[in-house]
Amino acid sequence: MPADSLLSPLIAATTQWLNRAYPSGPGALQRGLAEAQARQAVTVAAWLRYPTDLDMELVALSGPGGTSRLDWITGADGARPEDTDAWRTWVDEVVASWAACLLGSPALASAAAEAVRTERGEGAPVAFRRLTDPGERDRRAAGLLRHPDFLAPIADLHRAQLLNRLQAAGSTLPA
């Protein structure tokens, strides 16, 4: 099994958590556009957080931790206990925080996507355009998901770690 596929449950669950915590506008198209943006942010964050095959294997073996703290911060802790939704155990708090940082700042997202491309080689399989260069339709669909003020409680949890990781990768960070 390719090591990247070990991150699939983590990426899917963390994307789902972000989309539930910061819902899109009404309609299937808006939900799809918001989900694509969240998935791209989570993918970049996960690849940065777990850069080696060994890292991916370890998180697949031990599990990422779940949504308890994230739910408490967003005020959803009483509404959806983790034991009722098994997918919630696959949410990674650090990846969710890093993804929130990226969604709130297209410039930071561009630096992170470039770090991923550099580390994974120029042939990185995804362009991440919806994340790094969102169009007007993307921004409207993901108004809450991209609003820095709404994202701040989650983004601020592990922002310093993300910035350190990007600096270690040689990225030029936005001011």
Describe what this molecule looks like in 3D.
- With 175 residues, the chain is an all-alpha fold.
- The protein has 9 helices and no strands.
- It is globular and about 40 Å long.
- Helix content is 63%, strand content 0%.
Key terms:
mainly alpha, globular
What is the topology?
Elements: H1 8-21, H2 28-49, H3 53-62, H4 68-74, H5 93-104, H6 106-120, H7 129-132, H8 136-141, H9 148-168
Helix pairs in contact: 1-2, 1-5, 2-5, 2-6, 5-6, 5-9
- Percent in helix: 55-70%
- Strand and helix order: HHHHHHHHH
Structural class: mainly alpha
Mean pLDDT value: 90
The number of strands is 0
Low-confidence runs (pLDDT<50, min 5 residues)?
none
Count of runs of 4 or more consecutive helical residues = 9
Strand percentage: under 5%
Shape: globular
- Outline the biggest β-sheet: none
**What Rg do the Cα atoms give?**
15 Å
Distance between the termini: 40 Å
Question: Quick recap of the structure?
Answer:
This protein has 175 residues and is mainly alpha-helical. Helix content is 63%, strand content 0%.
